Structure formats: structure tokens, C-alpha cells
Request: fold
Amino acid sequence: MISCRQVDRALANMAGVIDEEGAADLRSLVQEQGRLSFSGFAEWALRQPTFDLMANHRELFALVDSDANGYLSHEEIGLILQLLDGRSSPEGIRAFIAQHDRDGTGTITHEELI
Reply:
């Protein structure tokens, strides 16, 4: 889940990338429930014409790293895959981890993601 604070921090980092209408829409989604599900964020991001997921990888990583521990878990990697190509499967997550997990921890750091 993504908190209001995480959304505000990410939107501040993406000033000029996300227009005010998109930012207001995202804030509204979070305020309705107090937190935003990963799937809710993915749906919002896919509707944003000015949000280039690849160009904004650091902000995306920080937003998806919901527990702010500096690495992405299996669930968080599933969200990244859904954001990047619109789908996520257990096999896809395992393949992604195998491809990017250079230190063998079973998780992905920001450095491994880029």
C-alpha cells in the first residue's frame, strides 16, 4: 500500500512531469482510502500521458518500495512489471529477479533495477 505521505513525496519529486490534474487525481485516490493499493497506482500511472515510467525510474522505485527498505520484494516487483508492460505473473517475476538480482538476495535494489 502507498501512503498519502509517499504520494506527496513522489509528486514533489516529479514536479513538471505530472500535470496538476493528474496529481490531483492521484491525491484523491489516496485520500479516499487513506492509502493506495499498488494496483490502484498502476491503473492511475497507465492513464497519465506525461508520465514516462522509464525516465522516472528513481521516483517510481521510491514509490513502489512501499516499506522504504531500499529494495523491491516479489510483490513490489510485480507492480513494476505491471507498470512497465501491463502484466505480471509469478513466472515473470521470477525471470525478472533472475535477470536483475546481481547480489543473489532475491530482491532488487535501485542500482540493480537500472
Remarks:
- The longest helix spans residues 20-33.
